[in-house]
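Thread: quick sanity check before group meeting

JM: Hey all, I'm pulling together slides for Thursday and realized we never actually wrote out the predicted structure for the chain we discussed last week. Dropping the sequence here so it's in one place. If anyone has concerns about the input, flag it before I start.
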Amino acid sequence: METIDKDILIRARAGDLEAFEYILSFYEKVIYNYCLRILKNSQNAKDVAQETFIKVYTHRKDIDPTKNIKTWIFTIATNTTYDFLRSKKRKNEISLDEENETISSFEAYYPQAGVVSDVEKAMEQINPEYKKVLLLFYQQGFQYQEIADMLEMPINTVKTHISRGKEQLKEILKEYGQN
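JM (edit): ok, ran it. Output follows.
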């Protein structure tokens, strides 16, 4: 994947709005899709993605041009997404329209297909902790150490979650008649 030039990161850190807008345009879609895969609701995903970039802008002075900004932004997106889920759980709020707004991420990527794959359905059934790590590893391509840093967990826990998540997926997919 293409990376952002260090000069742009330095300018964004200094408050250059044009440089920040470039970063936003570079990661906006991938962050939205990542949030959508977890939240399964397009409006919630838009809100959380927007909140993520507000936090990125607010903490722009923390941008380190020598490090991978993608990892930093995904850390913020992951934390913001799970903060949203925790607050929603605490409030126990369920919108009457939410069921109608909820779409699978498969449908978001491939709206013309109109069907949800067995893997997508199976992903909804696995442990959320495993799902989070699997999405970061397989969908976003982060390495074990990057995921460990993002989620503030030991690298061996990341490896264990990936292994257990794959096992859960395998068992669920067996129920669908796939091996």
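AS: nice. The radius of gyration is 17 Å. Residues 130 and 163 are 9 Å apart (CA to CA).
JM: adding both to the slides.
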